[in-house]
Each structure stands twice: as C-alpha cells, then as structure tokens.
Amino acid sequence: MAESSGIKFLKYYLQKLKLFFLSKDILSFLLFLALSAGFWFVHSLGKEHEIVISVPIKFVGLPMNYAITNNPPTEISINLKDQGLRLFTYTAKHNSPLTIDLRQNFHHKGEILITSDKLTTRIAKYLHLQPTTIVSEVHPDSLLIRYEKLVSAKLPVKLNAKIELSHQYMLSNKIQLSPDSVMIFGTKKAVEKLKSIPTELLTINNLSDTTHLQVQLKPVNHVRLSSESIKVSIFVEPFTERKVQVPITALNCPENLSIRTFPAFVNSTYIVGLSKFNTLSPSDIQVYLDYNELKNAKTSKGVLKIRNNSLNISNIRILPVEVEFILEQK
C-alpha cells in the first residue's frame, strides 16, 4: 500500500515538472538565453583573434640524380591575426601539403635558402589570405635545403619470396622479373654497399596456376630507385613421373684409358611437367664416374654421380647408385 502511494507521488511531481518546462515562461527564458548566446558569439567573432595552424611541407623539383642531404622541416607553424569570423576559413584541416618547387632556385652550388619574405609569400598563396589577415609569426621563418649530386648504378633485382606450390604442381619455367634490374641513385658510400635491390617479401600458398603480379621493391635508406615495383611472372603446371634408361659415362679419363662399368646403363626416374614430358634430350641427364676419384680407389666399385642439365626436370633418382668398374688400356 505504501509502495503504491510512493509511485503516485512520483508521477504527480513528474507531471508538474513537465508542465513547468512546457510553460510559456520557461520557453521564453530558453529562447532569450539562445538569442543572447548567439549575439555574444557573433560579437565575439567581430573582435580580432589569433590562431596557430600547422601546414605540412613537400619539396619537389630536384633532378633524379640529386638528393637533399640535410633534414629540413616537414611542417611549418603559422600565427594568423584577424577577426574571428575570417579566421574560420583557415582552421579547416589542410590535406594537401605546401609544395615548394626547387627547380626555379636550383643550381650546382649545393644549397637553397628560402627567406622569410619568400616563405610568407608562398604561405599567402597557399592559404588564399584575405587582405585583413596578418601573418604575425612563422616558425621556422626561413628554410635551408642542402643537396648534392648523386652517383648512379644499375643493380639486379633480387626476388624475396616464399612460394608453396599445390600438390603435384611444379615450376614449368624460371621465375621472370621485369625489369630484372633497376637504376639507383645515392651517395657514393651508400651505392657501393649495395650488390642488389631486394623486393618486399612475396608469400604465396598452394599455387596451382601461372601467375603475374606486381611486387614492391624494398626501400633503401638514402637511395632513390628508378622504379618502385617490378612484374613477377611465375609459371606453374602439373607434373608427372617418367622413367628412362641413361648410359653411364666417364669424366676426366686419360686418353690411353677407358672405364668399363657393369652395368653400362642405369634406370632413371625424374619429375617433369606435362608440357615437357616428350621433350627430353639425351644430354639432359648425365650419369657418370669421375676418373680422378677412381684412380686411387682400393675397391672396384664406384658411386655414380648425377648432373641435371635441364630446368624442366627435377628430383632425379637412379638405380643402381653404385656400379662395378674396370680400367682398360686402349
């Protein structure tokens, strides 16, 4: 019963509060308060104010074989004075940087000084300053850019990749890079340290089809590259297993001697792409004994060696791996 009375009491006062805020007196008060705030804000905007904005800087126009060697600022701080309403036009976020083209001032002296007056003029054009706006301070008030001529070199590109082929697939050709070399520009010390330009890591899993893609070159400190990326072509096809008989040959044997083996042929098994299945040349696989390893042997058995002369086959296996031999006078 007491709980019911409490609820009725709460509803009563909530209703009174609602009627109070909806009454003409309170609405008039709120309207007057809003108008007063508006008049104060407009009056405030009419007075002179000062703001500070930061503007990013971008330097362009140096020839490819020149580079900035000091560390000029990447942004400048600008103090502006004007009526508050006009300053609103400058407070917007500047997404594009203040671009400073160095071509007009470029010479072989090695440095460019952009004085305070020149910098202020560039800022005025960049911000589209109104006649009433005053640039009271710029920090830094001038810019010094030092640069030097770079040496150049042509270096090969080195692919940095982890490529996993799908089951029963193989590379059908050598991975191609285009271009396979790039021009670099840098200080003599920086260029002499480099032997190649690596790519960013390329990771591919379960590759089962020929693929062409762009791969970024890895940036090198204080060195410019003539290209930021290269085209990588990876040629893939299914493979199968093939068996052939291969003759045993002798290497480094004197002219007055010959090596006879028992047997004279071995059975060879290898993996080959389907497109190259019937293109094997007799010289692609060489199975041999080396006379230099046999001449002082204390046994009449020799371990066979394999030489793969083709990019199209892999995983060569032979039986037997060891044969008997005799040296004969011719």
From TrEMBL:
Transmembrane stretches in the record are: 21-42
Q: Which InterPro entries match?
A: c-di-AMP_regulator, YbbR
Q: Which UniProt keywords apply?
A: Membrane, Transmembrane, Transmembrane helix
Q: Matching Gene3D superfamilies, A to Z?
A: 2.170.120.30, YbbR-like domain (2.170.120.40)
The answer on whether this UniProt entry bears the keyword Ubl conjugation reads no
Which protein is depicted? YbbR family protein
